[in-house]
Design goal:
The complex is a heterodimer. By secondary structure, chain A is mostly helical. Chain A contains nine helices and three strands; from the N terminus they run H-H-H-E-E-E-H-H-H-H-H-H. Classes of the chains: A mainly alpha, B mainly alpha.
């Protein structure tokens, strides 16, 4: 059975090759489950943490933060492509480890993600040589900024906003699905605050990167 | 294009909101796809089920073979034993008679039968003593 290289996997994910993405997912899941214990991840958290780490990795590939630079995998950081010193799997495990750590230190009383943590995660900037490249790269950068902000969002906010905007459920339906929300007014306020915080983080980062 | 977000915020969503919502939707679709793959990994398909059933049947057959052959071997040995036992008495008689015949002279050889007038009868011992 052919073993795909990291660059081939990155190319396939960037081109949304569904078969390859599935293959990569299955192989990675098997490897991750066998090594999750070394990351001190509890058994009931393995699936969630792996899924979040995989979404994070895929978005990095899809937004070209990780890409194939002339046969070598590179990752854009501080406006420059840096050759990756680890394999995709090692990188995935590192993301999972960080997500696990965030899960452990997450205070359930906090509703919204800490801004500094989000901005730290968005620490990069790029400068383009020509206008056309600049426009394209600015668009990609905006996509990355938004992707990072959404990935860094708290689970609570993600659930509420997903139910409302993606599944288009009413507040009453969301209230029925989320017993931790005790009132419709409270839920509406939470939804507004979650969305508002996202907007602020993204706009702030856009300003820092001169994208607006 | 109709604004599909028809709730309280309809008409209030700007370009940035749409960027955020699109990203949210994309990540959610990725998660849903992964959950589907997870489900497929857990549920074996029919071909796999049939293959496993066949493997189990083959394993059962393999376990049965030595057991059956042992039974047959024991039965064969027992049958052979019975046959031998049945044949044994007749085998003994035949063997003894011929052996004796081969090794021992006949009575006629030891004690030849008198022919009429040609030979003196064998004297009894007391007759011999009286003659002396």
């Amino acid at each position: 059975m052919k073993k795909w290289t990291d660059t081939e996997i990155v190319e396939a994910v960037a081109q949304h090759d569904a078969a390859m993405m599935e293959r990569f997912y299955r192989d990675s899941k098997a490897y991750f489950c066998s090594h999750a214990g070394a990351l001190f991840v509890a058994e009931d958290q393995v699936d969630d943490i792996f899924q979040e780490a995989m979404v994070h990795l895929w978005r990095e590939i899809e937004t070209h933060r990780i890409e194939n630079c002339n046969g070598v995998l590179c990752r854009w950081s501080d406006g420059q492509p840096q050759p990756m010193t680890s394999s995709l799997m090692t990188f995935l495990l590192a993301i999972a480890k960080r997500k696990h750590w965030e899960l452990l230190r997450k205070d359930s009383r906090l509703e919204l993600t800490d801004d500094n943590a989000v901005l730290d995660a968005l620490d990069r900037s790029r400068y383009a040589a020509d206008t056309e490249t600049a426009a394209r790269e600015a668009s990609e950068e905006r996509e990355r900024v938004v992707a990072d902000a959404v990935l860094a969002m708290s689970d609570r906010c993600r659930q509420i906003l997903t139910l409302f905007y993606y599944e288009q459920r009413s507040l009453d339906e969301i209230l029925a699905l989320r017993p931790e929300n005790t009132s419709k007014v409270g839920l509406k306020t939470s939804k507004y605050k979650c969305m508002q915080r996202l907007r602020e983080v993204v706009r702030q980062r856009f300003a820092q990167l001169h994208l607006i | 294009m109709e604004n599909k977000y028809t709730f309280e915020e309809s008409g209030q969503l700007d370009a940035l909101d749409h960027l955020i919502i699109d990203e949210l939707a994309h990540q959610q679709r990725l998660r849903q796809q992964m959950r589907l793959w997870d489900q497929q990994m857990q549920v074996p398909d029919n071909a796999l089920i049939l293959r496993r059933q066949e493997q189990r049947r083959r394993a059962r057959r393999l376990r049965l073979v030595p057991f059956v052959s042992n039974i047959l071997s024991v039965a064969a040995l027992m049958t052979l034993g019975f046959i031998i036992q049945a044949l044994l008495p007749s085998l003994n008689a035949t063997t003894t008679t011929s052996a004796v015949d081969e090794l021992s002279p006949t009575i006629e050889q030891v004690m030849p039968v008198h022919s009429a007038g040609s030979e003196a009868p064998i004297a009894a011992p007391q007759d011999s003593a009286a003659a002396e």
